[in-house]
Design brief:
Length: 40
């Protein structure tokens, strides 16, 4: 899929990558900037 974003966990660099389509990635980035994410 064009525009797919691949993310890896810096604490497990040899682990699996998470791939996000552009729209979910944009929603995540916006929530992060606006402070809408909460830790579990």
């Amino acid at each position: 899929m064009p525009g797919t974003v691949a993310v890896r966990d810096s604490k497990a660099p040899t682990g699996r990558h998470i791939r996000c389509a552009p729209a979910p990635w944009a929603a995540f980035a916006e929530a992060l900037v606006r402070g809408r994410l909460t830790g579990s």
